[in-house]
């Protein structure tokens, strides 16, 4: 409709209704992503979810990560149950553990710029006790 009318932009009244965490399986921010793509001449097809890594719950990681990256995800230490978990204190990086038979599917994710992961949400660092 925006393109049909020749309007130069659009507005979202309630941006918090977008799926910032990608929980619905359509990727992060599907509403804003579709608006951006349509207004910029792109295909309005939604992004695909991030690729999953599968590991055995009893396995441990023996490969050290470079100091500039987040530590590797070790399923036995980091997947005590299904759910979202931070990659570190006051970090924008987090992951989701999903059980799959006798293994875990682990989705690595990150908050938008300027936000950190705290209690199942991306929040401003000033509102997270871990960042004090």
Defining key terms:
22% strand; 132 residues; 2 domains; flat; alpha+beta; 6 strands; 14% helix; two-stranded antiparallel sheet
How would the blueprint of this fold be written?
Layout: H1 2-5, H2 30-39, E1 53-55, H3 75-78, E2 83-86, E3 93-100, E4 103-110, E5 116-118, E6 121-123
Antiparallel strand pairs: 1-4, 2-3, 3-4, 5-6
Structure summary:
The protein folds into 2 domains: 1-49, no CATH class; 50-60 and 71-132, no CATH class. Helix content is 14%, strand content 22%. The strands form 2 sheets. Strands 1-4-3-2 form a 4-stranded antiparallel β-sheet, with no helix packed on it. The protein has a two-stranded antiparallel ribbon with strand order 5-6.
How would you characterize the overall build of this protein?
The protein has three helices and six strands; from the N terminus they run H-H-E-H-E-E-E-E-E. The protein has 132 residues and is an alpha+beta fold. The protein folds into two domains: 1-49, no CATH class; 50-60 and 71-132, no CATH class. Strands 1-4-3-2 form a four-stranded antiparallel β-sheet, with no helix packed on it.
- Please give the radius of gyration in angstroms: 18 Å
Share of residues in helices: 10-25%
Structure class: alpha+beta
Assembly state: single chain
Shape assignment: flat
GO molecular function, one term: chitin binding
Biased composition (Low complexity): 53-74
Domain Chitin-binding type-2: 76-132
GO biological process, one term: carbohydrate metabolic process
